[in-house]
Structures are given as structure tokens and as C-alpha cells.
């Protein structure tokens, strides 16, 4: 699927974000491709479609939306899986945390995604969730949700320890994702055993990058 190991750039913007709409995420993806990224992570059918027209890299697709009564917001329902596949994503990202008792349902989605010749990326938050996802037949495990479930380590830095533990015991590729804010941390994740590193905010959310500079200047006053 991927030409080689390396950097996957998450190109996501939402209503209210300054870069939302108008094909801006496809331009971000083009910039990522030009500079050597090996894949793109993208949200929603519109962005997946326009990115697919613009770059020649594998696309990890997801949807993000709130379902009443549920904490799961990444690709929460089968209709989301269908939407992502119809848009042409090569890989579907699924929440495979233990927060809700839905793994039996998700196993059927994994089979379905495979019948469509696509891969499944399991977004998990702990080592046990990663191991379980591997047993259920996913193709990639990503540490995306470490720090975003109440029972996973709440930290500002990326969860390098989780990357290392998973890479030591899983046979499938491990993706380091979440709060990787500079090239040094990306390298650290690869050295800990990640096959791929997903970086989002530090590359494609300039409003957050600007805020970091401004905050530093304020504290320096
Ligand atoms: C927790 C969650 O909902 N993560 C989302 C998953 O798609 C995105 O908002 C993140 O930008 C992505 O995981 C990359 O992480 P970072 O932006 O920290 O490099």
C-alpha cells in the first residue's frame, strides 16, 4: 500500500477552521506529497475526493461526528465506513477503543472493508486495545487516541512508550500518531519502532502553530 515507511500527513479542517473547504486540504496534501510524505490522513468525503484527485498517495479516510449517546466520534457508524469507501479512501480509520461494547459490530465492518480491497487502521489508546485490534484482523494500529480516553496516559508529549510496546509485540505495522510536534519527536517515534508517523496539527493547523509563537512571546514579556 505505502511505497515506504515514513511520514503520513493528516490534512483535516472542520467548519469554523480558517482552512476549511475550498480544496485547501488538497493543497496541503499536495505540499506533503511534494516534500516526501508517504501517505495522507483525511476526514470526510469532500476532502477525500479532492485529495484523491490531487495526489497519488494512499489515503487514510475517516469521518468525525458526534452520535447522540456515544463517545465514539471517529468513523462512528457503518454509514460512515460506506461514505469513506465511496469517496475512494484506501484505508479506513476506525475507533477500536474499549469505550463501548461494539467490537462484534466492528469485526463485520473490518470484513466488509477488506472485501472492498481497502485496509483498516485501528485508532487505539492503550496496548491492550492494540493487541485486540490485531487479533480482530486490522492492517495497521495507530496510537491516535492515547491521551483522549479517560483511562490512557494524559500527556502533552506523544505516547512513545505505547509505540515501543506495540512494535515489540505486534506483527502488523505500527503508526505513531498524536501530539507529534516536531521532526525530532517524529524520529524518536520511528526509532521506538513505528513504521509510520502521522503528523497533523504541527503541519496543517497554522492557527495552532501561530498560537504557540504568540504564547511564547507573551511569556517572554
Ligand atoms: C484525537 C483525535 O481526534 N485525533 C484526530 C484524528 O484523526 C486528529 O484531530 C489529529 O489531528 C490527528 O490524530 C493527528 O494528531 P496531531 O494533530 O496531534 O498531530
Automatic annotation (TrEMBL):
Reactions catalysed: an N-acyl-D-glucosamine 6-phosphate = an N-acyl-D-mannosamine 6-phosphate
CDD domains: NanE
EC number of this enzyme: 5.1.3.9
Keyword check for Transcription: no
Molecular function as annotated in GO: N-acylglucosamine-6-phosphate 2-epimerase activity
Recorded coiled-coil stretches: none
Pathway involvement of the protein, from the record: Amino-sugar metabolism; N-acetylneuraminate degradation; D-fructose 6-phosphate from N-acetylneuraminate: step 3/5
Signal peptide: none
Annotated Gene Ontology cellular component terms: cytosol
Pfam families (alphabetical): NanE (PF04131)
Record flagged with keyword Acetylation: no
GO BP annotations listed: carbohydrate metabolic process; N-acetylmannosamine catabolic process; N-acetylneuraminate catabolic process
InterPro entries per record: Aldolase_TIM, NanE, RibuloseP-bd_barrel
Keywords for the protein's UniProt record, in alphabetical order: Carbohydrate metabolism, Isomerase
Domain of life of the source: Bacteria
Family that this chain belongs to: Belongs to the NanE family.
Record-linked HAMAP family: ManNAc6P_epimer
Function field: Converts N-acetylmannosamine-6-phosphate (ManNAc-6-P) to N-acetylglucosamine-6-phosphate (GlcNAc-6-P).
Protein name: Putative N-acetylmannosamine-6-phosphate 2-epimerase
Species whose genome carries this gene: Cohnella faecalis
Gene it is expressed from: nanE
Amino acid at each position: 500500500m505505502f511505497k515506504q515507511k515514513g511520514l503520513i500527513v493528516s490534512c483535516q479542517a472542520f467548519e469554523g477552521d480558517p482552512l476549511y473547504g475550498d480544496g485547501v486540504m488538497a493543497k496541503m496534501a499536495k505540499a506533503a506529497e511534494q516534500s516526501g510524505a508517504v501517505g495522507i490522513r483525511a476526514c470526510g468525503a469532500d476532502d477525500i475526493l479532492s485529495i484523491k484527485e490531487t495526489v497519488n498517495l494512499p489515503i487514510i479516510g475517516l469521518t468525525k461526528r458526534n452520535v447522540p449517546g456515544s463517545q465514539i466520534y471517529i468513523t462512528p457508524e457503518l454509514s460512515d465506513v460506506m461514505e469513506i469507501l465511496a469517496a475512494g479512501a484506501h484505508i479506513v480509520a476506525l475507533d477500536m477503543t474499549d469505550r463501548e461494547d461494539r467490537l462484534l459490530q466492528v469485526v463485520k465492518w473490518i470484513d466488509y472493508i477488506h472485501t472492498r480491497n481497502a485496509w483498516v487502521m485501528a485508532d487505539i489508546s492503550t496496548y491492550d486495545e492494540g493487541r485486540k485490534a490485531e487479533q480482530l484482523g486490522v492492517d495497521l494500529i495507530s496510537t491516535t487516541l492515547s491521551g483522549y480516553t479517560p483511562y490512557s496516559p494524559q500527556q502533552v508529549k506523544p505516547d512513545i512508550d505505547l509505540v515501543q510496546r506495540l512494535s515489540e509485540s505486534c506483527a502488523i505495522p505500527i503508526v505513531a500518531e498524536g501530539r507529534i510536534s516536531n521532526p525530532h519527536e517524529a524520529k524518536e517515534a520511528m526509532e521506538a519502532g513505528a513504521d509510520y508517523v502521522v503528523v497533523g496539527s504541527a503541519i496543517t493547523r497554522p492557527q495552532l502553530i501561530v498560537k504557540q509563537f504568540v504564547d511564547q512571546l507573551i511569556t517572554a514579556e
